[in-house]
């Protein structure tokens, strides 16, 4: 079925939402719900379809070409198609890298536009923000070096007007600029305050991947980002004050992140003790899977 469905996609236009939406969702789940052997073949089939990749290029570009909806919580058919497009491309990036699959057509994206889609949200629905962050995680994990993706439109003018140390720092973080990094971190922090479960999971995962990327590129910048004082206020905003309030997956993952990068001004021995006490008093068998997994990672980090 991958052949006819992917060929059908390649014959569509981005405005053919009623047809494209189920097609892209089928391709996405075909990649994720199959055996590793079949998965490798599925990736090869999709990446060999030039017309499909050209269609995906046009779909993604619609993210910043169309005007924002009047109701941010409403997921229109156009937004739903964008979500499917970003998630499918993120998956293709992941599996192309895993299997080193041959690429017949590259995707070209403006990094500034992608970052601005999160930084300047303009009433974007939650699911669309989550989908774009999945894509960001994929490119960060691959160090912007995927053979499937060409990054264009880096803003080099800003670095040219700054003092030499800033220019050297930007060069080390390329293709990201220092100002872009701090802007995206602030935006991710603001998104966490909404306390939307799906959004919180995506934001924390994106923060984890971003700091890991920065630590490889420039440890000073990574540690500076991880130790921002605003993180501490953010943590206590997330805590609902209820029983076992520390045992929330996103809170545990944030605590683990700060422990990993030794942000002692964000998480103190007192908070660590509180988490251990709450974990000791909890019925571990009744904890949700996401909480158990996050608690396991936290304890390993401690």
From TrEMBL:
One of its GO terms (biological process) is meiosis I. InterPro entries: Immune_Signaling-Apoptosis_Reg (IPR052133). This is MEI1 protein. The lineage of its organism: Eukaryota, Metazoa, Chordata, Craniata, Vertebrata.
């Amino acid at each position: 079925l991958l052949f006819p469905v992917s060929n059908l996609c390649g014959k569509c236009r981005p405005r053919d939402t009623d047809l494209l939406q189920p097609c892209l969702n089928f391709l996405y789940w075909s990649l994720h719900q199959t055996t590793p052997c079949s998965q490798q073949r599925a990736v090869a089939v999709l990446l060999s379809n030039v017309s499909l990749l050209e269609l995906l290029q046009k779909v993604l570009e619609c993210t910043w070409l169309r005007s924002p909806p009047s109701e941010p919580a409403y997921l229109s058919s156009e937004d739903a198609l964008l979500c499917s497009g970003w998630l499918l491309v993120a998956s293709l990036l992941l599996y192309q890298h895993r299997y080193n699959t041959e690429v017949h057509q590259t995707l070209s994206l403006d990094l500034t536009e992608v970052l601005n889609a999160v930084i300047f949200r303009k009433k974007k629905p939650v699911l669309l923000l989550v989908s774009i962050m999945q894509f960001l995680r994929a490119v960060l994990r691959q160090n912007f070096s995927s053979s499937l993706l060409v990054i264009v439109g880096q803003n080099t003018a800003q670095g040219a007007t700054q003092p030499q140390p800033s220019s050297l720092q930007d060069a080390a973080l390329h293709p990201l600029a220092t100002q872009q990094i701090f802007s995206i971190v602030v935006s991710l922090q603001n998104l966490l305050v909404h306390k939307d479960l799906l959004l919180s999971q995506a934001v924390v995962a994106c923060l984890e991947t971003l700091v890991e990327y920065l630590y490889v590129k420039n440890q000073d910048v990574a540690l500076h980002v991880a130790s921002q004082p605003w993180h501490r206020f953010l943590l206590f905003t997330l805590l609902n004050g209820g029983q076992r309030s520390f045992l929330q997956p996103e809170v545990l993952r944030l605590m683990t992140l700060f422990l990993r990068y030794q942000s002692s001004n964000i998480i103190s021995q007192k908070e660590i003790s509180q988490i251990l006490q709450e974990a000791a008093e909890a019925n571990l068998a009744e904890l949700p899977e996401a909480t158990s997994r996050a608690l396991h990672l936290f304890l390993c980090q401690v």
